[in-house]
């Protein structure tokens, strides 16, 4: 039976997978959560928005006769990954995750590992710094308790709600990012502390390499736990799995 594929997207790897599925003539649909105003257009039919929890996803899988789900979401999209494991088990649909290895500290890196966003907020309990927050908009508010810092906020869209920081500047940019631009940005803003998720992959790595070159500390947020599932690290492995 011809496979019918659902891709849970929102990362650089998901975009590469969509192109390969389209080139291969697969019957596949691409799914975004609808987090940003203009997500990247994909070469596959695309749906935008939540499914409505596990049961919503089970219904979607049945209604669209999905035979294979590829969870190519970001390592920090833990809720989506948990729901995909539960829904695919309930609907007896095959599931794999396409993800990328986490970044490892290299010589010269000054990383302070924290387990989660609350840990990152705790790590900012120190004298005033010029902090770059490259963690998106969803959890920014938690950092406003530390009013002593100046913040450089990199967001995909202009903030729609007032930000409760005393001293901050917003840069609106959609990755992938490169070292030259991130070095220039961080030097221009005299950044002396960076907060980052351990996203892995290439598209968000530039700020980490820039921090090493500048010799500044990085508060590195470790990945959330996600349930056990088959994981592949490349688009080719994902296509082999479908075949
Ligand atoms: C909506 C839609 C591509 C895909 C680009 C990747 C790389 C660039 C770097 C920094 C870090 C951050 C953030 C980031 C990166 C890629 C990839 C990645 C980080 C888009 C996209 C969607 C999202 C969601 C968005 C979050 C936010 C996180 C900004 C698309 C552009 C901080 C994570 O404003 C918001 O609500 C933004 C929400 C979730 C984190 C958060 O919690 O706020 N990504 N990002 C997806 C959907 O609707 O389903 O693909 O165009 C995708 C990408 N964002 O190659 O073109 O593969 O990781 N995205 C992080 O990783 O740290 C910015 O500034 O250095
Ligand atoms: P999340 O917290 O794990 O998911 C929360 C809810 O959003 C899910 O339960 C689901 O809603 C919906 N959702 C998430 N991803 C979806 C998708 N691809 N298609 C349809 N619905 C989706 O997710 P998140 O951290 O907000 O990330 C949202 C999207 O942004 C993901 O696609 C992810 O790949 C991308 N992204 C996230 C980050 C990050 O730092 N978190 C970074 C880069 C890209 P229902 O329960 O209603 O189904």
What does this 3D model show about the protein?
The protein has 243 residues and is α/β, with parallel strands linked by helices. The protein has 2 domains: 4-101 and 225-242, Rossmann fold; 110-221, NAD(P)-binding Rossmann-like Domain (Rossmann fold). It contains 7 helices and 12 strands. The chain has helices at residues 12-23, 53-63, 78-91, 117-123, 179-188, 206-214, 235-242, and strands at 4-8, 27-32, 46-48, 68-71, 94-98, 110-114, 130-134, 150-155, 167-172, 193-197, 217-221, 230-232. Strand 4, helix 3 and strand 5 form a beta-alpha-beta unit. Helix 2 packs across helix 3 and helix 5 (179-188) packs across helix 6. The longest helix is centred in the middle third of the chain and has 14 residues, at 78-91. Bound molecules: ligand 3Y8 and NADP nicotinamide-adenine-dinucleotide phosphate.
Shape category: elongated
Strand order of the largest sheet: 3-2-1-4-5-12
Gross CATH architecture of the largest domain: 3-Layer(aba) Sandwich
Low-confidence stretches: none
CATH superfamily of the largest domain: NAD(P)-binding Rossmann-like Domain
What do the pLDDT scores average to? 97
Bound molecules: ligand 3Y8, NADP nicotinamide-adenine-dinucleotide phosphate
Rg of Cα set: 19 Å
Q: Roughly how much helix do the residues carry, as a percent range?
A: 25-40%
How many domains, in number, for the residues? 2
User: Whole-Å distance between the termini?
Assistant: 11 Å
* Main beta-sheet strand count, sense and barrel state: 6 strands, parallel
Q: Which structural class should the secondary elements be placed in? A: alpha/beta
CATH class of the largest domain: Alpha Beta
Number of DSSP helical runs: 7
Q: Give me the CATH fold name of the largest domain.
A: Rossmann fold
Number of strands: 12
Order of helices and strands: EHEEHEHEEHEEEHEHEEH
Query: Beta fraction of the residues?
Result: 15-25%
């Amino acid at each position: 039976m011809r496979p019918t594929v659902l891709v849970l997207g929102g990362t650089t790897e998901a975009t590469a997978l969509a192109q390969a599925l389209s080139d291969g003539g697969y019957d596949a649909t691409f799914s975004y959560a609808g987090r940003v105003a203009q997500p990247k257009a994909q070469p596959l039919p695309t749906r935008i928005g939540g499914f409505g929890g596990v049961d919503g996803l089970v219904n979607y899988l049945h209604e669209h006769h999905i035979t294979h789900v590829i969870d190519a979401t970001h390592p920090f999209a833990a809720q989506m990954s948990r729901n995909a494991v539960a829904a695919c088990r309930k609907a007896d649909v095959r599931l794999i995750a396409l993800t990328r290895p986490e970044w490892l500290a290299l010589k010269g890196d000054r990383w302070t590992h924290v387990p989660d966003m609350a840990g990152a907020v705790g790590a900012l309990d120190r004298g005033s710094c010029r902090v770059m927050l490259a963690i998106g908009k969803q959890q920014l508010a938690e950092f406003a308790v530390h009013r002593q810092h100046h913040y450089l906020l990199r967001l995909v869209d202009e903030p729609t709600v007032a930000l409760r920081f005393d001293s901050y500047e917003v840069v609106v940019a959609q990755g992938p990012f490169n070292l030259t631009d991130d070095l220039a940005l961080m030097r221009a803003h005299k950044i002396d502390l960076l907060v980052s998720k351990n996203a892995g992959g290439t598209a968000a790595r530039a700020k980490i390499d820039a921090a090493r070159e500048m010799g500044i500390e990085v508060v590195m947020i470790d990945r959330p736990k996600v349930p056990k599932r088959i994981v592949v690290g490349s688009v080719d492995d994902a296509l082999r799995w479908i075949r």
